[in-house]
Amino acid sequence: MLRNVSECKICQKYQRENQKEILINPEIPGRPWQKVACDFFCLKGKEHLLMIDYLSKYVELKPLNSTTAQSVITVMKSIYATHGVPEELVSDGGPPYNSNSMMNFFRE
Fold it and tell me: What is the per-residue burial (b if ≥16 Cβ within 10 Å, else e) of 5-14?
Protein backbone atom coordinates (compact mmCIF):
# COMPACT_ATOMS: atom_id res chain seq x y z
CA MET A 1 0.00 0.00 0.00
CA LEU A 2 2.80 2.46 0.87
CA ARG A 3 4.40 1.78 -2.48
CA ASN A 4 1.11 2.53 -4.22
CA VAL A 5 0.79 5.86 -2.38
CA SER A 6 4.41 6.82 -3.07
CA GLU A 7 3.96 6.12 -6.78
CA CYS A 8 0.53 7.75 -7.10
CA LYS A 9 0.85 11.10 -8.91
CA ILE A 10 -2.37 12.48 -7.43
CA CYS A 11 -1.30 11.42 -3.91
CA GLN A 12 2.06 13.14 -4.38
CA LYS A 13 0.43 16.29 -5.68
CA TYR A 14 -1.87 16.65 -2.66
CA GLN A 15 0.29 15.26 0.12
CA ARG A 16 0.93 17.51 3.10
CA GLU A 17 3.91 19.76 2.54
CA ASN A 18 4.59 20.44 6.21
CA GLN A 19 5.60 17.03 7.47
CA LYS A 20 5.97 16.88 11.23
CA GLU A 21 9.55 16.67 12.37
CA ILE A 22 10.66 14.46 15.20
CA LEU A 23 11.15 16.51 18.35
CA ILE A 24 14.52 16.06 19.95
CA ASN A 25 14.79 16.96 23.61
CA PRO A 26 17.84 19.17 24.08
CA GLU A 27 20.46 18.06 26.55
CA ILE A 28 19.96 19.95 29.83
CA PRO A 29 23.16 21.70 30.96
CA GLY A 30 24.60 21.15 34.41
CA ARG A 31 24.69 24.78 35.50
CA PRO A 32 22.95 28.08 34.75
CA TRP A 33 24.05 30.10 31.74
CA GLN A 34 26.11 27.20 30.35
CA LYS A 35 23.84 26.90 27.29
CA VAL A 36 21.83 29.89 26.11
CA ALA A 37 19.44 30.39 23.18
CA CYS A 38 19.16 33.76 21.48
CA ASP A 39 16.99 35.37 18.85
CA PHE A 40 15.42 38.67 17.89
CA PHE A 41 12.02 39.70 19.17
CA CYS A 42 9.92 42.63 17.98
CA LEU A 43 7.90 44.35 20.70
CA LYS A 44 5.79 47.41 19.87
CA GLY A 45 7.77 47.98 16.67
CA LYS A 46 11.19 47.86 18.38
CA GLU A 47 13.70 45.05 17.96
CA HIS A 48 15.02 43.30 21.06
CA LEU A 49 17.58 40.61 21.74
CA LEU A 50 16.02 37.67 23.55
CA MET A 51 18.31 35.28 25.45
CA ILE A 52 17.02 32.25 27.38
CA ASP A 53 19.01 30.02 29.72
CA TYR A 54 18.40 26.33 28.91
CA LEU A 55 18.59 25.20 32.55
CA SER A 56 16.56 27.78 34.47
CA LYS A 57 14.53 29.18 31.52
CA TYR A 58 15.57 32.64 32.76
CA VAL A 59 14.93 35.30 30.10
CA GLU A 60 16.93 38.40 29.23
CA LEU A 61 15.18 40.81 26.85
CA LYS A 62 17.17 43.89 25.85
CA PRO A 63 16.25 46.60 23.32
CA LEU A 64 18.48 46.97 20.26
CA ASN A 65 19.33 50.17 18.42
CA SER A 66 19.53 48.03 15.28
CA THR A 67 20.05 44.39 14.33
CA THR A 68 23.57 44.95 13.05
CA ALA A 69 26.30 42.72 14.41
CA GLN A 70 27.89 45.60 16.34
CA SER A 71 24.63 46.53 18.05
CA VAL A 72 23.99 42.89 19.00
CA ILE A 73 27.56 42.50 20.28
CA THR A 74 27.17 45.60 22.48
CA VAL A 75 23.99 44.21 24.07
CA MET A 76 25.50 40.72 24.45
CA LYS A 77 28.49 42.21 26.27
CA SER A 78 26.18 43.90 28.77
CA ILE A 79 24.30 40.64 29.37
CA TYR A 80 27.55 38.67 29.68
CA ALA A 81 28.81 41.20 32.24
CA THR A 82 25.89 40.16 34.45
CA HIS A 83 25.72 36.41 33.83
CA GLY A 84 29.09 35.46 32.36
CA VAL A 85 29.83 34.11 28.90
CA PRO A 86 27.89 30.95 28.01
CA GLU A 87 29.81 27.90 26.82
CA GLU A 88 27.22 27.31 24.10
CA LEU A 89 25.06 29.84 22.27
CA VAL A 90 22.18 28.53 20.16
CA SER A 91 20.82 30.75 17.37
CA ASP A 92 19.23 30.38 13.96
CA GLY A 93 22.58 31.27 12.38
CA GLY A 94 21.15 34.12 10.32
CA PRO A 95 22.40 37.67 10.10
CA PRO A 96 24.08 39.06 12.13
CA TYR A 97 25.16 35.79 13.79
CA ASN A 98 27.06 34.68 10.68
CA SER A 99 28.91 37.99 10.14
CA ASN A 100 32.70 38.31 10.39
CA SER A 101 32.53 40.72 13.33
CA MET A 102 30.25 38.32 15.25
CA MET A 103 32.58 35.38 14.50
CA ASN A 104 35.52 37.41 15.82
CA PHE A 105 33.50 38.29 18.94
CA PHE A 106 32.73 34.61 19.56
CA ARG A 107 36.42 33.71 19.25
CA GLU A 108 37.44 36.28 21.92
Answer: eeeeeeeeee
Report which residue type is found at 33. Answer: W
Burial degree of 35 (CB within 10 A; 0-12, 13-18, 19+): buried
The three-state DSSP-derived secondary structure of the chain is CHHHHHHCHHHHHHCCCCCCCCCCCCCCCCCCCCEEEEEEEEECCEEEEEEEECCCCCEEEEECCCCCHHHHHHHHHHHHHHHCCCCEEECCCCCCCCCHHHHHHHHC
> Residue 56: phi, psi to the nearest 5?
-90, -15
Q: What is the pLDDT of residues 33-57, one digit of tens each?
A: 999 999 998 989 999 999 999 999 9
pLDDT tens-digit profile of 81-101? 999 999 999 998 888 888 999
Q: What is the pLDDT of residues 53-70, one digit of tens each?
A: 999 999 999 999 999 999
